[in-house]
C-alpha cells in the first residue's frame, strides 16, 4: 500500500513538473525589421514586436537610464531587428538596429514574453509615464 501511495506521489510530481515546463518551440520567424513570430508545440503562437523584445531584452545594457534606482529603457518605439542567430538548441540572439545584441532570448523566455505580452507592455508604459519618459526617441538638437 505504501509503495502504491509513493508511486502516486511520484506520478503527481512528474505531472506537475510537465505542466510547469513551457512547451517546446516549433517555429521562429523573423519578420524584419519589426517583429518575431514564435509557435510552440502546444499550439500557442505569439507575435512579438521589436520594441517589446528590445525593452525586455534579457541582457544588461549600458543604454538603460536609471531613474530613482529603477532601470528604464525608453525611446525605442521605432527600433528594428536587423538579424537573429540561433544559440545552441535553446535560444536566439537578436541584433537590433540600435546595435544592441547582447543577451539570449531562450525559448522559455520567449514563451513567457508571449504569454504575458499585454501585462508586460502595460507595465512598461506605466513605468515610462511614472518617470516622465516616452516610447518615442529623443529628438536630436
TrEMBL record:
GO terms for molecular function: metal ion binding. Gene3D superfamilies: 3.30.2020.30. The keyword NAD does not apply. The keyword 4Fe-4S does not apply. Residues 33-111 form the Gamma-butyrobetaine hydroxylase-like N-terminal domain. Pfam families: GBBH-like_N (PF06155). Keywords: Iron, Metal-binding. This is Gamma-butyrobetaine hydroxylase-like N-terminal domain-containing protein. It comes from Oryza nivara (Indian wild rice).
